[in-house]
Amino acid sequence: MNILNDITKKYLKLNRKRTIVSIIGIVLSGAMISAVTTLAVSFQGFMLDVEESNNGSYESIIENSTPEIIEQAEEQNNFKDIIPVSHIGMAENDFSDENFIRIMGVEKENIDKVAGMALEGRMPENENEIVVSTSFFNEETPYIGDKITLKIGKRLSDGYELIGSPKEENEEFEVEETRTFTICGIINRPYFETYYDYYNAAIILVDRSEILNSEKIDLALIDKNSKNIYEDSERLAESVNVSEEDIQYNNSVLMYKGVSLNSGFNAMLYSVCGILIVVIMIGSILVIYNGFAISVSERKKQIGMLISIGATKKQIKKSVLFEGVILGVIGIPLGILCGVLGIGITLKIVSSLIAPLLTFTRKRRNRISYFI
Amino acid sequence: MEIVKVENLTKIYGKGETKVVALDNVSFSINKGEFVAIIGPSGSGKSTMLHLLGGVDRPTSGKVYINGTDIYSLSNDNLAIFRRKQIGLIYQFYNLIPVLNIEENISLPVLLDGKQVDKNKLNEIITTLGLKERVNHLPNQLSGGQQQRVSIGRSLINNPAIMLADEPTGNLDSKNSREIIDLLKYSNRKYEQTLIMITHDPEIAKEADRIIKIEDGKIS
Ligand SMILES: Nc1ncnc2c1ncn2[C@@H]1O[C@H](COP(=O)(O)OP(=O)(O)OP(=O)(O)O)[C@@H](O)[C@H]1O
Ligand SMILES: [Mg+2]
Fold this sequence. Notes:
Bound molecules: adenosine-5'-triphosphate, magnesium ion
Strand order of the largest sheet of chain A: 2-3-9-5-8-6
Helix content of chain A: 40-55%
Oligomer: heterodimer
Mean pLDDT of chain A: 86
Strand order of the largest sheet of chain B: 6-7-8-3-9-10
Mean pLDDT of chain B: 89
Largest sheet of chain B: 6 strands, mixed
Number of helices of chain B: 7
Structural class of chain B: alpha/beta
Number of helices of chain A: 9
Distance between the termini of chain B: 24 Å
Radius of gyration of chain B: 17 Å
Order of helices and strands of chain B: EEEHEEHEHHHEHEHEE
Number of domains of chain A: 2
Number of strands of chain A: 11
């Protein structure tokens, strides 16, 4: 055992009270810093959760492709989730003069990844149920629980297929099948419905074989490493000759994942955290120094003694560092533990208080699951 | 033979209005085995001088040669190593490490070198100093005279060529003072150590081979 470390330890034991005060200071500061960090992380997670239940958890979607893109995506091996969405067809809309209904099909386990959660009602559970975009509904339209019969087929004009464009004089509708669904829920406008599309979006459940047989599919993707989603999506689109313009990114989700290019939210979150941590550190240094100050002047005397006996600067530095390490090794893990536990308990209490509120305003209980 | 040679040594503390010239262009030399007493009024620069001889502080200008080595041409770390091998320092207030027992305090300079203590040497010192019964005590369990003996023991453990003592008896009664001075003179003679001692006591100064008198930072 190094004699100087031995001396340091003995001093720490001798001045037990002061040692404990210093450790408490470190514990407090560690606790506050980890609490701020935990809070920020769970806030970020909460916002991500909200976004994912609004829009789905996909990171990008390549539209207007064919089933062969699925194989390509699997081959490229960059993606955690590969979610095909098949274009089932258009349907005439009996409740609107200008809009059609566009129906897309997803596998049951994937529907929340492309459409999030139902605003009202719930997502479909079998192939006879349908969820429809909020834009569809008005006083005359059927509502949750009602049945709706749709003539599904193609809009054709001079042999061309129309999808999102306005109704044309000479267009014809070619009915392929007629199906009746029960409306089970209302969803936000999903990714395939934009403000200038002349249709309302609807989603039904399909199985894999139907998807593989469909002419047109979109492919939603979640990258293994979210940071690469842009280049990986572009590479995939290129490999199946789909234009870059057909790639849509789930910008708000990417933003809360800290990936999006214009991530103002994260910049703000990080700088607020940074400032808080700096303030805490300055505060705790002042507190620790107060307990330390006496020991500093005492230490100076000891250091003077040691120097007069022939200790080198290096040896002195090492022994001071050793003292810090001892205090830190005890204080920091304890602090982090206290911080995480403390904020965990706080969040649990807070979330149990706001849970009923959230459930009342939007029927999405598990939104706050992040906090519990 | 010259063991200590001081050339134009100057030490200035502070700057501007608070500037203090503690040592003013001092030159002298000391032979091996000599016992030199340094005397002078309070604030005249005695301790400053002793610290500069021991390599504890650095001078503003001038040189100190020990055994022909210009000690202030050494790096800080080498100076520290030089100090613990060549110099034994004794202070008025003992400067013992309160958490180490007597044996550990005496062994400290060797332990700082990362070396094993020579048990025979340690026992010899402890016996000579009359501390045999006290080896496992902490410094605050000893009397002032005993503590000063421990600090002498510590300065002897490395067999230093030079012993520097800053008022070693300043805090002791006359009986204890006598013992300490005798011990220092004993090791001065026995090991042919050079002994440089600051004292306010004219009786003690008289026992020295030579007296250096300092006034206002100058030798007079
Ligand atoms: N670290 C320092 N900073 C500033 N001035 C100092 C410092 N150390 C000593 N001095 C000044 O240098 C001068 C000489 O001090 P020094 O300690 O050498 O005196 P001294 O002769 O040992 O006195 P005493 O007999 O009282 O111990 C004094 O005026 C003192 O105030
Ligand atoms: Mg002095």
